[in-house]
Amino acid sequence: MKSIVTGSTLRGLESAFLLAEKGCDTTILCSGTYLGEDITGTWKWYPRERQDQLRSELDRIAVKYDLPLTPPGLLYPGTIKRLLAEWVRKAGIKVCYMTRLFGAVVKGNVLTGIAAADKQGLFFLPCSLVVDATMHHEATRVISHNPLRFPKDHPITMRLELREVTCDFSNKLDLKDVNAILLKGIRDERQAYLEFRRQLPYDMSMQEARAWAVSESCTMLSALKQFPETSDAIPGEALPYAIDLDEMPVNIEENIKGWYLTCLEKWDTDDINTLSAESQLLINGNYLPFSLNDEQEILFDWKLLPHTETEVLVAGAGTAGIWAAISAARAGAQVCAVELLPYPGGTRSMGGVNHLYYGNRNRLFMNMWREIKEFTNDVMGRKIPGMLHAAEIMFYFSEIARCNIQYLSNAIACGARKNDRNELTDVLFCGEDGPFVVRAQRSIDATGDGDIAVYAGCGFDYGDDEMHVMQNYSQWNRCTPERNGYRSIDQDTMDQTRRSEWTRAIEWNQVSLADYDMFDMLTVRESRRIHGKSVVTFEDAVRGKRTPDIIYETYCTYDPHGRCMNIYGRLGLMPVQGNPMFIAIPLGSILPKDVNNLVVVGKAISADQDTFNYIRMNADVMSIGWIAGRLCVQSIRKGMPVDALPLDKLQEQLYDLGAITLPPPDTTTYSTSPDRIAAEILAGEESGFRNAVITNWEEIRDLVRNAYDLKCYRHAKLLEKTLLWFGDAVGAQHLTEVLSKANQRFGKTSYKDRQMIDGFIKCGIVGELDDYWLINQLVILLSKAHIKDAVPVIYNVMCNTTPGSGWQNNSSQYVSVRLDCQSAANYDRILCLAEAAVLMPDSIYASELTRLYKEIEVQEAPPATFYKEYLQVRLLAAMKACGAKETEQLLKFMCSSRYSSISSYAKKLLVSE
Ligand SMILES: Cc1cc2nc3c(=O)[nH]c(=O)nc-3n(C[C@H](O)[C@H](O)[C@H](O)COP(=O)(O)OP(=O)(O)OC[C@H]3O[C@@H](n4cnc5c(N)ncnc54)[C@H](O)[C@@H]3O)c2cc1C
């Protein structure tokens, strides 16, 4: 029998273990990214005083169902989350993470399953028994369509996490509030939890109660400033959350006609069939009708769902969304913001993203930033360098209240409808109180993943073209000292077309080290890039293209990913570090191609992957969010679509605010004339090369080649570089000779000579690039010219430029060594070799490539398993191209990689000729 347990409370887990023990095929529906929502849920930190109680409760269940006991030491939220994940794995229970119950599917009078919503939309889960183990019987209420309300005077318990508390916690504070107690935290001696109770001033929904609890906490925090013990205290990561578990506002049984869902405490039988029969009771009760078509899609009547009408809908309240909402509301619009998590701020409030490096520091952004700072300094009573978490979230909550924004939290967008004019008419959400629809004149998709746009039928890209590789997982494990750094971020990709990917990603994270804490959400660096009416491309960025519909300009001096993967980047045409680059954002890039009244902001903007690296920073997404809010209000007031709006006024304002640096020109500023570009190159101007690379290069190459042959030039190196880039044999031959000579002399020459040669290669031919880029570029240049001997040359260069292996301790003695896999520093070089071998395959490289593959196989995975497997699969592509013997067998093995991008790439290689 298939059973679904809704809610991953301890009660829910216990039900699931019992059902699994009885042989039921059991799935837990979990709204967050971890189990045990009542003990590890949002901001539920366990104070020291309550550790023993928690441990004995967990161990009781462990003993009963033969599961691993709690580990010794303090039980951090991360420790508990990992333990619970291990429990369900051991018991063979499936979990659907980030999933909300949408309703019941009933055929005839029989329950056939449930409808659920996740980030890919609605789906059907067959089952014949549903257990309601949610914290407030939300599941029963969702199915019976009977939303929860807390009555006036209902007591609410709140817990506020404090840092920098300098008092002895054993001394209770005289807060003139009998209910307030201060509990010792577990992070360090200066962390504490302030637990206090208040009564609701009026009747409220769950969502309203949560927002109210935050504002109460702000008041409490200000009150704390008068006490010496807590005057320095600042809010930590935890905002108040706890709406006390045991105190239900009303007796739920009286309110609901039949018991459809079975709660563990109600079970007086161990007989699963009896339970299932009891659960059929609701079939005669009150539920929303859903059905299934042949494709197992959920069908329902949109008109039956409760709906809200508004002028501007903002879906997702991350930094882009919350600023879009604030800006639209301040411009006078009626705004409804709906967010998946209980609080606004998105990725930025997850922790770990508390810096605002990169991005354009224009006045528009600085104004927002000043507002946040002023508020948070106020809340904290003093200036805190860096930021912030709870304090910034409090700022957003205060603005939500001040600007009268309708804020609906804990609700996931799971569908959308358009009319025949391609306008979005309804956006479907599923929250704690069940499904509801928002109808808005203009909508802003700020989900960071373009969820609404996709529901409305827009196309999207993700990752890079070949393997869909992109940076994905968060800094969940950053909190253990040994994994605290960039290297602890893993770089798998999520296949954005597959539902199971979110769960796979979450489970993957659970295995990694995260003792201290894990955040509430999978923070995905790069998600979908929605196909817009225009696309921000790297090529345009390099050319400095500016269109009349410019609405923003990012300014960056740095590639936040460290390495830009496209050919322009490899040629030094992008700022790896150093030269600032302006990237113009046209209005078309935030307008999805196929929907007319929708704007997509934040990290789902329409861009190619490399440009995207630069424009997803907090400062930029906040600014673009703000601009989108304004645009939507103007478009409503003027009664015209956003893309038809006259932009001059807004652009003037943005120019004054420094969000665009130059008055927008009417046309693009670069010239595409081959003569003119060739003349620039001959005059030694790098810009000419840059333009040549990007424009119609064949004609330019011929002009340059002519000049080279006739020796009528002054800037040989630039010409060589240009010819090399175009794969011209003269240029390529020249470079190969230089490299070979350099390699021959390396063994004998002094450090000074080598420096000279390196300097010549780097400055003269390829500009100031580091080794990896030098090599990468050589690979491209030489392969373009089909220089047969290129791979050994590249190989030698790689060995000789490998830090630590080529030169030993600056000792001015050069030792040529084999490229080894001991050091992760060599991985980039090995990747280059693999790329070179794919471009210029030859059987002579097969054994060397196989050696490298095997050497990597036995290495621990520095810096992360994904890199290791990524490198291996790239080597396999090279081995295949060069005809290495064991390739097929090794590829088969790779097909079962847990990384979807790697396994699918391996499968592709396996079947390709
Ligand atoms: C690990 C990491 C470190 C980073 N470090 C930095 C840094 O140091 N500096 C910097 O400037 N940038 C940094 N960034 C990038 C930057 O933080 C993000 O690009 C930026 O916060 C994105 O903002 P957003 O509003 O587009 O998306 P998000 O912040 O992700 O907001 C999207 C919101 O929508 C909600 N949502 C998603 N789907 C749905 C749905 N279906 N229904 C309803 N709501 C939904 C989410 O809960 C979330 O609140 C980092 C990113 C990551 C992942």
Describe the protein in words.
- Helix content is 39%, strand content 15%.
- With 913 residues, it is α/β, with parallel strands linked by helices.
- Among the domains are: 198 residues, FAD/NAD(P)-binding domain (3-Layer(bba) Sandwich); 86 residues, no CATH class; 300 residues, FAD/NAD(P)-binding domain (3-Layer(bba) Sandwich); 43 residues, no CATH class.
- Helix 25 runs parallel beside helix 27 and helix 26 packs antiparallel against helix 27.
- About 9% of the residues have low confidence.
Strand content: 15-25%
Helix content percent band: 25-40%
At CATH level 3, the topology of the domain at 301-464 and 534-669 is FAD/NAD(P)-binding domain
Biggest sheet architecture: 7 strands, mixed
Mean pLDDT: 76
Q: Any idea what the CATH superfamily of the domain at 301-464 and 534-669 is called?
A: FAD/NAD(P)-binding domain
Distance between the termini: 46 Å
Query: How many β-strands, per DSSP?
Result: 26
How many individual helices?
Answer: 31
Bound molecules: flavin-adenine dinucleotide
Radius of gyration: 30 Å
Large-scale geometry: globular
Which properties best describe this structure?
single chain; 913 residues; alpha/beta; FAD/NAD(P)-binding domain; 4-stranded parallel β-sheet; 31 helices; 39% helix; binds flavin-adenine dinucleotide
Question: What's this entry about, in short?
Answer:
The protein is α/β, with parallel strands linked by helices. Among the domains are: 2-148 and 249-299, FAD/NAD(P)-binding domain (3-Layer(bba) Sandwich); 150-235, no CATH class; 301-464 and 534-669, FAD/NAD(P)-binding domain (3-Layer(bba) Sandwich); 671-713, no CATH class.
